[in-house]
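Example record for the data management plan.
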Amino acid sequence: MAKIEKFEDLDCWKAARELTNLVYEVSEKGKLRTDFDTKSQFKRAALSSMNNIAEGFTRVSQKEFMRFLDIARSSAGEVKSMTYILDDQNYIPKEDIETLHKTVDKTIKLTLGLLRYLRNKNK
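Corresponding structural encoding:
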């Protein structure tokens, strides 16, 4: 396995970036486009996932990195939670909801995978 030297090489960060771009794209559709409070929270949650992975990677200690990965995973969970109300309120098309679910699940899975790897590495 090649040594990861920058956060841009992390698969979980790449997935979080994909999720963030998708959230930004979807935020300009349907009723969500004009609900500025919900749109802002949706975008901030996605950004939080991506940025916490990057911020954690640049921290000095592995313990801090793991804490930031946990926050990133939680923020991705917030994005997923919000998709349910967006769906319930018919804010965005169903196909976008499905794509968001797949992308957020991938982001959470990869972030949790790295977190588990780091936990087990220290045992």
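Summary line stored alongside the record: Helices lie at 11-26, 36-57, 62-88, 94-121.
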